[in-house]
Structures are given as C-alpha cells and as structure tokens.
Design a protein that fits this description.
This protein is an alpha+beta fold. The protein folds into 2 domains: 199 residues, Metal-dependent hydrolases (TIM Barrel), CATH 3.20.20.140; 79 residues, Immunoglobulin-like. It is 18% helix and 34% strand. Strands 1, 2, 3, 9, 10, 11, 12, 13, 14 and 15 form a 10-stranded mixed sheet that branches. Strands 4-5-6-7-8 form a 5-stranded mixed sheet. Strand 4 and strand 5 form a beta hairpin.
Length: 284
C-alpha cells in the first residue's frame, strides 16, 4: 500500500446525543486539524446524510448499546448505514438490521465497558477499537490490544481501529488522539468503506506509515521517525527491532506458521501505530 492516504475518525458525538457541539462545529474542527473524513456516531441517533455541505466527508453511523442473550453488555458502532436505524431499540435487532444494510459493526471500547474477549466471539463484529482516546484520557481504559490478539487467534481478519470518541464536554474535551489512515483511491464513502473492509488502513496515535509492502511473506515499511517496530503474533510469538535513535525503515520476514501477524510501531514519545492483520494481505 502506497497512498493516497486519507485520515479519519470513526467515533464522534454531537449535541444530538451526549456531545456538546453541533455537527457543523465538529466537522470544522476536524477539517482544520487535517482530517479528510469523520463518522458521526451519536447514541441511537443515526446520522444519514441529507446532502448538506460540510468541509470534509462524513460517513453515516450510529453507536448502539445493550445486552445480548447471555446478558453481556456491549457498545457497538455501525458504520456505513444506508438508512437510519430505529431509535432505542434492542441491540441484537439493531445490529442485524445494520448488517443487512451492509454496515461495518465495530466493538467499541471493550476495556472501558468491562468486556472479556470471549464475549465477542459469538457475535458478527467486523473489528474493535484497539485504542479509544477519551476512555484512556478519562479513566486509563482505552487500550484493547489484548482483546484484539485473543480474538485474532480465532478470527485472523478481525479489524483494529483507533478513535477519539470525542464529546467536547468541558471536563472531557479530548480529541485528535487516535485515528485511522485509509489507503483508498478516493475519499468517498464507497471507497473508504471498501478499504476498511479490505484492511487497507492502519490505526495511529501519531506515527505515520508512508509505504507498506507485503510480498512472499516479506514485510517492508517506510515511516515517520520511530524507535521500535514489533511484529506481533499469537501467544508469546513476536519479533522486534529497537534502536536508541530514530529510524524510518524496517523489514521483517513473516513466519508462515503463525495464526495471525500484525505490525505495531512506536516513536520516541511512546505513541504507537498498528497495522491490521497482514498474513493473507498482498500489496505488491
């Protein structure tokens, strides 16, 4: 994958639910910060564009919550809706309708919610939030890479995204701390959603991947300055490159006997970026 890259945030709230700002103000803030697209995911208030002009592309979305048949409580993003979902319905019914519309279903902030990885396996989630910026800034429960790796052992194509979950409230004004960079030919709703489904994106808190090549189990990347690159596999399996000084290029031979392979990089400030599972991806 070698661009063009489009920066986006996939979990945001407006004053239609528990956010403070109106849609136009949220769109203006993210456009001014260099974002190319956002998704509006108010609680049970589906955003489906009616053609209004905004300074960046907006994906249709909603955040659902509720219990499954075993009593497990989830928050779930539905991204790419074709039409609004009924408000304040049952979680599983809403998920089924969103799936029928072709939406992506993303398991939101599992650490914050208190979910266990095994609780997600019965459900048809497409991925999860591996980093939720507001959850981390508020109560230190924003990371879910351990949940991700556990699910990847069963579903090696499970997506991982980083988000803001921004509300812009006085005591929780955290934003621009977690995002996705999507490799797509255009910044259109169809192209971005297709690239997300195809795993042609990475999640980041800061580091940027400028080039990613996977060919014959060989992986090569060019990045902004980093101090560490880690190839992550199942259980204890992994490879790493650490340097005391910044470097911008890394290469790995990917083992063929791992059930999944993903890459994460880290800069001198401790900020990370994560690719999606790479085992079956060919980018040459």
């Amino acid at each position: 994958m070698k661009g063009p890259w489009h920066k986006g945030n996939l979990h945001l709230h407006t004053n239609r639910s528990d956010g403070r700002l109106a849609l136009a103000s949220v769109a203006e803030k993210y456009a001014a910060a260099g974002y190319d697209f956002i998704a509006i995911t108010d609680h049970w208030k589906s955003y489906c564009t009616n053609g209004e002009q905004q300074p960046l592309m907006i994906l249709n979305g909603v955040e659902l919550d509720g219990h499954d048949t075993l009593g497990c409580y989830f928050h779930v993003l539905a991204l790419g809706l074709a039409r609004p979902l009924p408000e304040n319905g049952l979680l599983l019914d809403a998920m089924a309708e969103a799936r029928d519309q072709g939406a992506l279903l993303i398991w939101a902030h599992p650490h914050w919610t208190g979910n266990q990885a095994a609780e997600a396996l019965p459900h048809d989630f497409d991925g999860l939030e591996i980093y939720n910026h507001s959850s981390q800034c508020e109560i230190g429960k924003g990371y879910a890479t351990s949940h991700w790796d556990t699910v990847l052992e069963n579903r090696p194509d499970f997506l991982g995204i980083a988000v803001d979950d921004a509300h812009f409230q006085p005591r929780s004004g955290f934003w621009d701390g977690g995002w996705v960079s999507v490799c797509a030919p255009a910044c259109s709703r169809a192209a971005i959603l297709d690239a997300l489904r195809r795993r042609h994106f990475y999640a980041s808190q800061g580091p940027r991947i400028d080039r990613l090549v996977v060919k014959d189990n060989w992986l090569g990347i060019d990045t902004t300055p980093i101090r560490c690159a880690r190839l992550v596999g199942p259980r204890h399996r992994g490879k790493w490159i650490h340097h005391a000084h910044d470097f911008r290029r890394a290469e790995f031979q990917m083992p063929t006997d791992w059930s999944f392979v993903r890459l994460e990089i880290e800069d001198a400030c401790g900020k990370q970026a994560w690719t999606n599972p790479l085992g079956s991806m060919k980018t040459d």
